[in-house]
Amino acid sequence: MTQITDRTWNSPDGLTLYARDHAPASGPAKLPVICIHGLTRNSRDFEVVAPRLAAQGRRVLSLDVRGRGCSDRDPQPANYHGGTYAADVAALMEQAGVGRAHFVGTSMGGLITMILAAARPELIAGAVLNDIGPEIGAAGAARIASYVGGEPKVANWAEAAAYARSINGEALAHFTDADWDRFARRIFRDDHGTFSLDYDPAIAQAVRNPPAEPPDLWPLFNALAKDRPLLLIRGETSDILEADAAARMAAAAPHMRTMEIAGVGHAPTLEEPQAAAALRSFFEEAP
Question: What is the mean pLDDT of residues 15-26?
Answer without folding.
Answer: 97
